[in-house]
Amino acid sequence: MEFLRPARWEEALAAKAEHPGAVPIAGGTDVMVEINFDQRRPEQLLDLNRVTELHEWETGEEEVALGACVPYTRIIEDLRRELPGLALAAHTVGSPQIRNRGSVGGNLGAASPAGDSHPPLLTAGAEVEAESVRGSRRIPVEDFFTGVKRNALADDELIKRVHIKKASGPQQFSKIGTRNAMVIAVCGFSVALHPESRSVRAAVGSAAPTPFRALAAEDFLGAALEEEGLWDSGGALPPSVTKEFAGLCSAACNPIDDVRGSAAYRRHAVGVMARRTLGWVWDDYRGGAGSGAGRAAGDEGGSRCA
Amino acid sequence: MRVTFTVNGRRHEADDVWEGESLLYVLRERMGLPGSKNACEQGECGSCTVRLDGESVCACLVAAGQVEGRDVVTVEGLADYARQRAEAASAGGTAAESASVSTSAADEQRWAAAPAADGVPLSPVQEAFIDAGAVQCGFCTPGLLVAADELIERNARPSDADIREALSGNLCRCTGYEKILDAVRLAAARTDHAEAPGDGNGPGPHSGHGPAQGEVV
């Protein structure tokens, strides 16, 4: 095995072009487990820790350009106003030790169906900036996951940044696990209100081969809010609307039975999380008089139990 | 490959390191520092917790090559690290600025959970673990000590929720955690008391304090 330690981004791209089989390693929270357990013996490890720009982020007018290696701890502490859904999800990742190392770039690279950052990226609206010596491209996060632990990256590409839309309304995240730390999600759910476009986005993790948006549920809820004039009135959500939304989210799942939970349980749990998180964001929207951004994460920082 | 980095204030060098080797393996098997424990090798248990450039990390998930030129503190150097931090705080500087005193390799390797007559006194967290009876088999203790010390460094008056969260990545299969929580409350209270006099920045010793020492011991 070879240990490649590029100091600059261009060197990293050159190394990846020369060794398409090289496995990028940032925090190591996935890659090192596979190496420790003899499940993976890549010819090369490509350490990205010395490439400083990958550990930085930039907050623009519309979006946050998040370096691929920015650890979850930084997102929780420094970006929860701009990216409340992602910050909530980040808070459910592993433990403090894991959150100090793990990153959204690593989560995307691993492309596990259970990656905690994926549902909030889908609901906030995000693009993955992939680069190689051939050039750079932006992949909408909806198109990024191509299968279980498979993504749209070419062999010579590396994730440089993830461009995530700043929250314009409340966002929530919820996750099922056996305890409040150190769990891979049985299933996860994220919802975001976008009052400026009068739309709602909902995404599900760990209940299909890839994380996905529950488009039918989004469309239904968007139409129901419009029809009832609820964006303007800030009125309470009719229980029938919430119930239908939850049912559509649940129906969009295509889960499997595995050691963490059965398919039937996952379908049920996604419906419950959809109902509860929608209640939370809608309450926040009503309480925040239409400008709920930043309030969704709350000061306690953690996700409420679903 | 060769890897050179600072451990407990002292430069260490390891040769013939395999490229897929973890920092934990290098510490334990190549540098004679077995304080960080090897259990799950997947970041689940926290018993290998060390500080890497100040941050708590699982040493089993850090590739050895990633620590080249960086700064690691293990449980063997925790007492020294805490002492330097306290001295820096009382001198108004930071721990990093005063980290000139280094633990010798012999000191690191002789480390034991009791103050040796000629050794470095224990850190407040270590003392508190002993006083609160927070150690049973002891396997999880080094990781818990490093994680708890980092919490108190960051948050002098942690709430119970803060403590639980900070230690959520460290498993203990003996104690049921209650004595460990006691120990962290005790260490925080003692540290806060020690630093309170003459501290113009922090709130006074009577505002919203942690549990009194008597409750805990």
Topology (elements, then pairings):
The complex is a heterodimer of chains A (306) and B (217).
Chain A: E1 2-4, H1 9-18, E2 23-25, H2 31-36, E3 44-47, E4 57-59, E5 63-67, H3 72-78, H4 84-91, H5 96-99, H6 104-110, H7 118-124, E6 126-132, E7 135-140, H8 141-144, E8 145-147, E9 150-151, E10 158-165, E11 171-176, E12 187-194, E13 199-205, E14 212-213, H9 215-227, H10 230-233, H11 239-251, H12 263-287
Parallel strand pairs in A: 1-3, 2-3
Antiparallel strand pairs in A: 4-5, 5-10, 6-7, 6-10, 8-9, 11-12, 12-13, 13-14
Helix pairs in contact in A: 3-4, 9-11, 11-12
Chain B: E1 3-7, E2 10-14, H1 23-30, E3 49-52, E4 55-58, E5 71-73, H2 78-91, H3 105-110, H4 124-131, H5 141-154, H6 160-166, H7 178-195, H8 213-216
Parallel strand pairs in B: 1-5
Antiparallel strand pairs in B: 1-2, 3-4, 3-5
Would you kindly provide a brief summary of this structure?
The complex is a heterodimer of chains A (306) and B (217). Chain A is an alpha+beta fold.
Care to describe what's here?
Chain B: Keywords: 2Fe-2S, Iron, Iron-sulfur, Metal-binding, Oxidoreductase. The complex is a heterodimer of chains A (306) and B (217). By secondary structure, chain A is of the alpha+beta class. Chain A is built from twelve helices and 14 strands. Chain A has two domains: 2-165, Uridine Diphospho-n-acetylenolpyruvylglucosamine Reductase, domain 3 (2-Layer Sandwich); 171-287, CO dehydrogenase flavoprotein, C-terminal domain (Enolase-like, domain 1), CATH 3.30.390. Chain A has helices at residues 9-18, 31-36, 72-78, 84-91, 96-99, 104-110, 118-124, 141-144, 215-227, 230-233, 239-251, 263-287, and strands at residues 2-4, 23-25, 44-47, 57-59, 63-67, 126-132, 135-140, 145-147, 150-151, 158-165, 171-176, 187-194, 199-205, 212-213. In chain A, helix 9 (215-227) packs antiparallel against helix 11. The model of chain A is unreliable at 290-303 (pLDDT under 50). The radius of gyration of chain B is 17 Å and the shape is globular. With 217 residues, chain B is α+β, with helices and mostly antiparallel strands. A five-stranded mixed β-sheet of chain B has the order 2-1-5-3-4, sandwiched between helices. In chain B, helix 4 (124-131) packs across helix 7 (178-195) and helix 5 runs parallel beside helix 7. Classes of the chains: A alpha+beta (306), B alpha+beta (217). Chains A and B meet through helix 2 and helix 5 of A and strand 4 of B.
